[in-house]
Amino acid sequence: MSFGQGGPQWGPGDSRTPDWAALAEASESRTRRRKWLMIGGGALATVVVAAAVAVAVVSANSDNTSASNKPASELPSTADIPGASENPGPSFEETTPPPPPDPKEFISSAKKDKAPLSADTLFPGKSLTSGDRVYKKGATSATKKCASVAQPALGAILTKNDCTQLFRASYVKDNIAVTVGVAVFDTAAQATKVNEQAKEGLVVALPGKGVPAFCQTAVCRGTYNAHGRYAYFTTSGFTSAKDVTTKERKVYTVGDDLARFAFGQIQRRGEAQASAAANAPQ
Prior knowledge:
alpha+beta
């Protein structure tokens, strides 16, 4: 029987006894060699795996490494980054409130000018103060026959342009009195025409309630103007029946004060209606 090439051999009838100790030592030597080979092979495999992992890590980081080493000017801009937005915040549609109504719209047409209108609303109170000048209010009047309270030249113009009402009030200070008249029309165009055509004629002076008769026979000063659908006039003179001349600056001052007052009352009428319209619920 043979145990393989290179081992101890013997045959049948051989009287020699095998060297068991040598056989055991040889077997142990072969076993140790296989263990070392197995251990060595395992270590080699570990080294190979470790090398593969290291290569993979370096390969995965190669792109990032080149990017991170670049200066900031060469890095991708925010717009190039996926998901980036130039306007990341929430957006809201801008709303602009409507402009407030124009007061003149309400005093330029009878269709919109609906506030109460009377001598009391146009000429309130018992006196008028302008600067340091105080005028006492006298009589007031209202009529739909506009021409009846105007001198003929002005009366004809009022009738031609369809005047619907004419309100008057008189004021006095010292020996100077003034009557202010406000004529009403349906449209601003009619009032403008009256202002343009009123070259002659005055509103008739209105005495009463502390204001003596004036401008009945004497020369008096008159003014004309218009605002919206209203034309307004003043007739001012001396209560002593003295004629007014260009040198009588006090008479001019009285007439101008009352003309400004009439304009202001008409304008405030428009402002009040515009404010009410702006604050009305939609």
